[in-house]
Fold this protein.
Amino acid sequence: MPKQVVLFVVSLCLMTALSAQELQKRTEQTGPVITPAPGKVPNSNADYQALRNVGIGGDTFTVNTLVLKRDAGVFTFKIGTISFLAPVNGMVTGLVFQGDGGFDYVPPIAMEKRVSIY
């Protein structure tokens, strides 16, 4: 082996060993510790917890060719079942559809129509 190659390999091994030792010397950096205000526990709001743990309510319907238009979007439920989520604070916040359907969206702004995500 040429002398230059041997020197390069030796220096590379030496640099690797030194950098490994340098990593061991560093102290672990932690972000700031955020403590909640006295008497306040994060995410303890009853409405928030109800939304996080919401389940399927009792209302379930069979649908056949149901079309819902909302703003620039169109939901098409060809055939399947819709189950509403349990109410939270007296309001139904969503539904679950199982079956064959789709969603179409036509951007209302010309600039959004020109943007391609493909």
